Amino acid sequence: MPELTVDFITSLDGYGAAEGWPGFWGMEGPEYLGWLADSPERDHPALMGANTYRLMSGLAEQYPDEAGMAELASMPKVVFSSTVREPLAWPNTQLVSGDAIEAVRAMKRDGTRPLHTLGSVSLCRSLLMAGLVDRFRVVLFPVITGATGQDRIYDRYPDVALELVEHRLFDGRLQLLEYVPTVLAGPPGEHPE
Asked: Do residues 174 and 140 lie in contact, with contact meaning Cβ atoms separated by under 8 Å?
């Protein structure tokens, strides 16, 4: 059965973006960009919600020559939305308007290629809570954006225990941390009576 990896890039304080800051907080370096470009995951379907689709397809249209945009355009993508309509402007994108959890469950059951997410905080939270996430990967950027941060990633997430299975340092400053997640019913010390 194919694995599903939730993928996030975050500031140290858990934001996915920050107002006025460039993409990647302006800290992407050659090792990190090389890892992105050489990743076998560029051939694996990227799952996203409507907001991420609108944002990323708009950026791809506006900045087609920016780092990573050509790779994103060629990557197979699945957008889960009841508001996005076909035809889709972003190449290699499939629209699923039904239940995302059931669709991903079927993709894992019937598919052959691993899956990963692209942004999509609420979709990732739902997939995690449904027990469909096999890996949780974060690339941590060494910035704190408390005043300008947007898209807090972990708000309304359940409690999750994370077992570290991979780590890497890019360009002497960006940390990749990959975990196997276990959703908890409550804090580890709690026992129902």
From this structure: yes
Predicted TM-score (pTM) of this structure: 0.87
Peptide bond between residue 64 and the one before it cis (omega within 30 degrees of 0): no
Is the distance from CB of 24 to CB of 141 less than 8 angstroms?
A: yes
Question: Alpha helix (H) ranges present in 4-162?
Answer: 30-38, 50-62, 69-74, 100-110, 121-129
For residues 143 and 146, what is the distance between their CA atoms, to the nearest angstrom? 9
Look up the CATH architecture of domain 4-183: 3-Layer(aba) Sandwich (3.40)
CA dist 141 and 184 (Å) reads 27
4's tokens: 């599903």
Q: What is the DSSP string of 126-154?
A: HHHHTT--SEEEEEEES---TTTEEEESS
User: Amino acid letter at 13?
Assistant: D
149-158: pLDDT as tens digits: 988 999 999 9
Residue 127 identity: L
pLDDT, position 62: 76
What's the whole-number average pLDDT of the chain? 89
Domain segments of the chain: what residues?
4-183
